[in-house]
Design a protein that fits this description.
The protein is about 45% helix and about 15% strand. It is an alpha+beta fold. Helix 1 (about 30-55) runs antiparallel to helix 3, helix 4 (about 110-120) packs across helix 8 (about 205-215) and helix 5 runs antiparallel to helix 7. The structure holds fe (ii) ion (FE2).
Length: about 240
């Protein structure tokens, strides 16, 4: 009887998640061409570069993208910068697509609405803080509504540079907007303030409310599973 052929293990791969809506679904706030480029080229490129960086390190291939970010010290120096940038880009964009909806409600309800009232005074004041943070972020980055784990779970608006994620500083993301120029330049050119203002029409408050309620019970294991689809290796 001939020996059974050995199957080579299939390396785990990070996957580009599909957009949860059509490219044109967020118009007029965000145009279809921007969405197509942003998802199919920019996000896809982060996923591809992350997989390439991990090619020579099978022991890291089964780790989630956010685990890699939370454990950068364990990443070999030769790929640490590539992992930081591309796992960050992958996680943040995966969260970003879900932070928008063509059919969302105009305002949050439930415990998130109460928390916004408590921590900002009103939804309008939160939006003002969000716009300021997005405007003041010099260069490329992200603006977040996040829940601060170290301050009794209060909400906070913050911005991050490049593809940094607030989880690395102990803040759980509730809602996020991308303020890299590739997110708005085709339609808004240099008018980031207009983009930030119009973005509220597509903000996904239902997703934000779910994330807020889930964050109450979140554990480090939940954090390590945040953002980014993952295809596990099969023997
Ligand atoms: Fe982006």
């Amino acid at each position: 009887m001939p020996p059974l052929a050995r199957r080579e293990p299939v390396p785990a791969k990070h996957l580009l998640p599909p957009l949860p809506f059509e490219y044109a679904a967020l118009e007029p706030s965000i145009d279809a061409r921007t969405m197509k480029l942003h998802h199919d080229k920019h996000h896809a490129s982060y996923v591809e570069k992350l997989n390439t960086a991990l090619e020579k390190f099978p022991e890291l291939q089964e780790r989630t993208a956010i685990w890699l970010l939370l454990n950068l010290i364990k990443i070999p120096k030769e790929i640490r910068t590539a992992v930081r940038q591309n796992a960050g880009g992958h996680v943040n964009h995966s969260l970003f697509w879900r932070a928008m909806s063509p059919s969302g409600v105009d305002a949050p309800g439930g415990p998130l609405a109460d928390a916004i009232e408590r921590d900002f005074g009103s939804l309008e004041q939160l939006k003002t803080r969000f716009a300021e943070a997005g405007q003041q972020r010099f260069g490329s980055g992200w603006v977040w509504l996040a829940r601060t784990q170290l301050k009794g779970g209060r909400l906070q608006v913050l911005s991050t540079f490049g593809h940094e994620n607030p989880l690395l500083q102990g803040h759980y993301p509730i809602l996020v907007n991308d303020v890299w120029e590739h997110a708005y330049y085709l339609k808004y050119e240099n008018r980031r303030a207009d983009y930030l203002k119009n973005w509220w029409a597509v903000a996904n408050w239902e997703e934000a409310a779910q994330r807020y309620e889930g964050s109450d019970r979140s554990t480090r294991a939940d954090w390590e599973a945040e953002g980014g689809r993952f295809l596990a290796a099969t023997p």
